[in-house]
Amino acid sequence: MKVYESIAGGGKRESSSKRIKYSVDEKGEIVETYEEISEYSIIVAGTVEEVYADLAEKARERVRRNIASPLEYFMYRSQLEPDSLLALTGFSPREFKKHMKPKVFRTLEDDVLQRYASAFMVDIGTIKKFIG
Amino acid sequence: MSQKINPVFTHYDAAHCESGSIRSMLKNYGLDISEPMVFGIASSIVFFYFPPVKVWGHPLISYRMPPRSMLKKIQERLGITFVTKTYQDEQLAMDELDALLMEGRPVGLQTSVAYLTYIIPEFRVYFNGHMLLIYGKEGNEYLVSDTVVDRPMRIHAEDLRKARFARGQNPPNGFMFYPASIPASIDYRTAIRKAVKQTVNMMLQPLFPIVGIKGIRTMARKFEKLHRSPDKKNVRSFLGNVLMFQEEMGTGGGGFRYLYAAFLQEAAAHFGIPGLEEAKKQMAETADLMRNIANTCAKIVKDGKADFDLMPLAALVRQWAESEKKAYLILKKIKWK
Regarding predicted confidence, which is higher, B48 or B299? Predict the structure, then answer.
């Protein structure tokens, strides 16, 4: 896994991309080896990103046309599914469904929005200002 | 500002976070044990295909037992006592962690990958079962020994707090562990016999179509069904998911089979039981087959073409089921006495 380590002044420096893997050597023995970050990670990260970017783009369009709440856009931008968002925010499916309506979204209190903002790792202002 | 670093702590990296953390913890507390031994004795290998739970929009596929189960099994089978604790009060959890570090004790934690800032953002997924060790504190930063990283890392106290108290599926609730006592002598033979028996029973279970060898066959049927699906983009995304969980998440399915083969190899070397060596070879063959499946998935996902054939892939998955079944049947026939 490629990681970064903190350096003085709050910056980050690339540190490592090696991790242990077990594999079979030429004698048929299982051995420990180091592998660089695998191609699989890069491919999969790309696919997941592509799928959610697509969903987020569609949601953005729906927000623009005032038929979806900005929460839908941020949910997909954060690569979350409704189930995981429910678990992260602690809302019931019924409440969640209501919040996804643009009309209801505009009336939401800051403490409700804060729960979503924490899940999306953004501030409330960013969600409130989003118009598509 | 508190400042405490365990002067004798050694960072050991590993293939998988939980088996690696337990192994590193035990080694730092004086018990010399390998990661494959921890993995095998805890009966951690499994296959679980569960469509009702979705991960990134696709059915949950699990190749290992859930987080914390290794810790429970290691306690039970090796007679080691771990102190384990969860918290409701975040501040109390952080204070107790600091107090243990001040005593010079490395502590294991369950965390969410999403808040581990030393990992690049692309890989910070909402997975709440990641285990790591904390072995010191300098100012506002904790010293982290994350066994899937090849060197120690650092994390800001606030980020660690968020990682320990992340919400979502399987929340860590500040879970913490460290060994309280390790027996002077351990009966590895009995532990391994019990562990192998549990794994064989689980993987060959005849009742549920989503668990063990039956689960792998169910997944093969899913591939056959998807072959007829017109939504190729969704199919590619499913294959990406299979790839991710098979080869990347927590060392992946193929990786777990190599790890289990390494366990069988070590057990065979200790006890000289021929069946263990034979099962190891079969398990290694299975792992090679799984890597082949991963490569095929990767090729389809990477090419991005609309006309791909899933039937050969489904056949490979069926082959994997048969190959893995053979390994368990060999283990089942072993005479331990």
Answer: B48
Other Cβ atoms less than 10 A from the Cβ of B231: the count is 10
CB contact under 8 A, B240 and A43: yes
Cβ–Cβ of A21/B15 closer than 8 Å?
A: yes
What are the boundaries of each domain within chain A? 3-37, 41-129
Domains and their CATH numbers in chain B? 3-32+81-181 (3.90.70.10), 188-332 (no CATH)
Write the secondary structure of A64-122 as one string of H (helix), E (strand) and C (coil). Answer: HCCCCCHHHHHHHHCCCCHHHHHHHHCCCHHHHHHHCCHHHHCCCCHHHHHHHHHHHCC
Provide long-range contacts, Cβ within 8 A and 24+ apart, for B292-298.
Answer: B292/B316, B293/B242, B293/B246, B293/B254, B293/B317, B293/B320, B294/A40, B294/B243, B294/B246, B294/B247, B294/B252, B294/B254, B297/B239, B297/B240, B297/B242, B297/B243, B297/B246, B298/A39, B298/A40, B298/A43, B298/B243
Torsion of CA A76, A82, A85, A89, to 10 degrees: 130
Asked if B259 is an interface residue toward chain A (Cβ–Cβ < 8 A), one would say yes
Distances (CA, A) of B149 to A90, A116, B14: 32, 31, 8
What pLDDT score was predicted for residue B251? Answer: 47
Is it the case that residue B2 has pLDDT exceeding 50? no
**Interface predicted TM-score of the whole assembly (ipTM), two decimals:** 0.80
Tokens 């106290």 sit at which residue?
Answer: B157
Tens-digit pLDDT profile for residues A22-78: 888 888 899 888 876 566 666 666 666 777 888 899 999 999 999 999 999 999 898
Tokens of B192: 């391994």
- Return the minimum-mean-pLDDT range out of A5-9, A78-82, B305-309: A5-9
Using only the alpha carbons of chain B, give its radius of gyration: 21
Within 122-151 of B, beta carbons closer than 8 Å to A belong to: 122-123, 125-126, 141, 146, 148-151
Write down the mean pLDDT value for chain B.
88
